Amino acid sequence: MRSPSPRPLAVDRHGNRLVSFTRCTEDDLPTGARLPLALTALWHGGEVVMVHDRYRNQWELPGGLVEPGESPRQAAVRELSEESGQVPDGALHCVGYAAFLLGPEQRAEYGALFAGRTLRRRRFETDHEIEAACWWDLAAPLPGRLSDIDACLARLSAPTPPPHHPATR
Known about the structure:
Blueprint: E1 10-11, E2 17-23, E3 37-44, E4 47-53, E5 58-60, E6 63-65, H1 72-84, E7 93-102, E8 107-117, E9 130-136, H2 148-157
Parallel strand pairs: 3-8
Antiparallel strand pairs: 1-2, 2-7, 3-4, 3-6, 4-5, 4-9, 7-8
């Protein structure tokens, strides 16, 4: 008897599934065709930048395909800039990689997730793909549809709050 598949972390309205997330360093990312996608969670205070993709009609993290000759990190920085107009202060760090089952055929694919911070919110300009950008606090509703997969990945990338240290007397 076949055991049931583990419950996905998130599913979108098209049936795409985020089936797992593995925290790792950049050196431990899968290589080549196994990792065609890079996403970025850029944080300003307690908010992450989200972009509204006009074709998928949903809010999602900036990201896209890794181009030939490009590293996942380079793709993450490029896509962040192209889609949101934002630039991290300092280097992005690798959070890990996500495993997806995509499309009706449930094709297995992996995507790298990078995160960073910025102290300055830069101006956004629309283009043929992205019609809006905003800063999201992970709780407030966004106007329109939010990708459940990207919301889950944003939460996984959230900076941990500093530990609470009671005052000593």
